[in-house]
Amino acid sequence: MPSTDNLAAHLSSLRSALAEAGEPLSPEDETAALSEGMAFLAALTPPAVAATDPAPPFGFNDLCRIDNIGVQVFVRSVPFEILALSLVGGPERIIHLFQHNLARRHAALLADDIAHLRETASLEAIAEARAHVVCTALRLASMVCLNA
Q: Can you say whether residue 59 is alpha, beta or left, with left for phi > 0 and alpha for psi between -120 and 50 degrees?
């Protein structure tokens, strides 16, 4: 689960890398990155759960918490085949979220791939794809690449 410590560490790494490349992070960009990361972390932790459980698990069904810009970043970070496989048998709201954030042609390809994989994919392969997708979402969240 991403934490504010991870967020601070990634922000520090980003600041150092940009400084080494001769493109220091402006205070405005740093503030924006930090607030976006904090908003994403807050969205992953519902208030009722935060009071009782310091680290609620983030699962496949929680992908619907990612906003449209975050989904667009996310789909560029996950191989299309793995995304399609992970969506087989998944909730319609999540399938719709991804299709809505793809170009029409890619959304149609995704729908075709899901339909084909629904008949050929094993439950084990679907579970592995979903685990990959969740790990990618958490990695991007800790790197402050997803907004919620």
A: beta
CA pair distance 120, 115, nearest whole angstrom: 9
What is the Cα–Cα distance from 99 to 26, expressed in whole angstroms?
Answer: 35
pLDDT digits (tens, 9 = 90+) for 95-116: 999 999 999 999 999 999 999 9
Whether the full predicted model's pTM is greater than 0.90, yes or no, is: no
Q: Is 3 helix (H, G, I), strand (E, B) or coil?
A: coil
Per the structure block, which two tokens stand in for 49?
Answer: 């759960």
Supply the DSSP string of 9-59, one letter for each residue: HHHHHHHHHHHHTT-PPPHHHHHHHHHHHHHHHHHHS-HHHHHH-SS----
Chain-centroid distance of CA 28 in Å reads 24
Domain boundaries, given as residue ranges, for the chain? 4-142
User: What CATH number is given for 4-142 in this structure?
Assistant: 1.10.220.30
Structure tokens at 25: 């992070």
Contact between 88 and 117 under an 8 Å Cβ cutoff? The reply is: yes
